[in-house]
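ok so for the tutorial part 2 we go from a plain amino acid sequence to predicted structure tokens. step 1 is just haveing the sequence, like this:
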Amino acid sequence: MPCICSAKDAKTPFFTTQDFEELKKSDKSVFLFNAKNLSDKNISSYIQKGENEGVNKRFLTASRTPWYSLENRKPAPIWVSVFNRSGLRFIRNEANISNLTSYHCIYPKQTNLFSEIDVDLLFAYLLTDTANQIFEDNSRQYGNGLQKFEPNDLNKGMMLDLGLLDKQTSSEILNLYKEYKDLILDNKNGDEIINKIDKILTDKYREEKHWA
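step 2 — the prediction. this is what the tokens look like for a chain of 212 residues:
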């Protein structure tokens, strides 16, 4: 099963199918063993190999039944780094692959807030300094400026109520977001675009704060 196993393998805010293929060609660890057909001799022999090497007795695998089973969750549309020194790092999972614990998963729930919110609009907001400053209030500080975010730190974090944006403003942000994405995929700097998105949001919510 395709999977990103190391945080360093996602180098930009967008992880694409091409990025995955390049990692695969470079012989990086990009697959998880997903034993679906136990009648396949190759699968059964691989499971036996793991047991011979004691993989089934490790901390995580020992608590699973069977030990080689995987979590039953779909790929997250957005990843967020666990550790960082320069603010939260969000990744748009455009390759639609799974991830290990180097990233937390973000699944927008279908609530009043997110029922009509485009995932790209949410991601555009998450890239801004405003979003990072708000989330920092829930981070855990370690030595040398290292920050760590647990899943509940993010779940309890406040954010702007994007549901209050009118269609014109949302479209303006999404157009800028597309421009930003094109720049990043072309290996160019897109900070100016994100600053424009940030200014639109701060101007919009300046008079009255709307949090979710």
